[in-house]
Amino acid sequence: LSLHPLMMNYSHPGTSQHLHFCYESSNKSCPQYIYSLAVRVPLYIFFAAAILLTVFGNLLVIIAIAHFKQLHTPTNYLVLSLAIADFLLGAIIMPPRMVHSLETCWYLGNLFCKFHNSSAVTLCTASIVNLSFISIDRYYAVCQPLQYQTKITNCVTVVMILICWSLSVVIGFGMVFLELNILDIKDFYYENIDCVGGCFLFQSFASSFISSTISFYIPGFIMIGIYWKIFFIAKRQARSIHTSAFQNGNLQRIKTSQTKMERKSTKTLAIVMGVFLSCWTPFFLCNIIDPVTNYSIPQLPLETLVWIGYLNSAFNPLIYAFFYSWFRKAFIMIIFCKIYNPNSSRTNLVAN
């Protein structure tokens, strides 16, 4: 069995010595790199812990927003949509990816591989588009508070969520199942790259550039621009509030308290956005650079960057729990099954 140099690059370092194959009986089997037990066991424990944190952390967010009526706000509906994307990533994408990363072979068939890759692209795209809509929500809440309730209604939020998921599904499933990712390099891919027991999303430069731009770069720059504008307007509002704090009595104090809550919410969601961009930017940079450099980036670093991106889905619930006292109260009530008490859904989570 002879292997194309690029195919070796999509295996792991060391496969050229003591070469193993995913399917020994197939003359088109992918090479397999067998990790030592001392490496595999700690990695399995780490990945399993990350998966459990992702699944149960986001499940807490989903239950909290769905159960407590006080959390039924446009912003939290968008957060709910984000948590669903993160939950699905942890539940259906990360477990098979863990086995594939550590066993370096895919044993679940070609159809499920396509579904896996499509779902991964869909959920990643859904996450960043959700964050883009959240930044728009925060813009109106902080910069145009008088228009917020008329501009960002529940109906508008539902439309945002539908657009988010529809666009994500079209990009994810359309690209993979229509083979748009290898549209202009199909012959090269099937002759030199495709093998039995592999499951990776191979992309031409045109495919990687267009998909990365639509799924990541355009929404990312929109978010950065909006939060940058919010930052300066919030600073100006803070100075104005400080100047007039003693002029209008209780009404002004109420407005000041509300404005502080909006600013804190915006700051927290900006941190969520920042963590997301920090986790996924290295991968999307390499995703565009790799085809330009004739696929010279080894698979192991790319796999590591993918997992750094996946771990972002475990961070979001930790950020909510750290910055939002009312989310912490909701989490505690869920964990100790207090949500089954009568009228628990009407609990005042923000009471002092």
Task: Sum this structure up briefly.
The chain has helices at 5-9, 37-67, 74-103, 110-143, 145-151, 154-177, 186-193, 205-244, 249-292, 299-323, 325-335, and strands at 20-21, 31-32.
What is the tally of beta strands?
A: 2
Topology order in helix (H) and strand (E) letters: HEEHHHHHHHHHH
Low-pLDDT runs of 5+ residues are: 1-5
Strand residue percentage: under 5%
Main location: membrane
Keywords: Cell membrane, Disulfide bond, G-protein coupled receptor, Glycoprotein, Membrane, Receptor, Transducer, Transmembrane, Transmembrane helix
Family: Belongs to the G-protein coupled receptor 1 family.
Pfam families: 7tm_1
Structure commentary:
It is globular and about 75 Å long. It contains eleven helices and two strands; from the N terminus they run αββαααααααααα. It has a single domain, classed as Rhopdopsin 7-helix transmembrane proteins (Up-down Bundle), CATH 1.20.1070.10. The protein has 352 residues and is mainly α. The chain has a two-stranded antiparallel sheet with strand order 1-2. The termini are far apart.
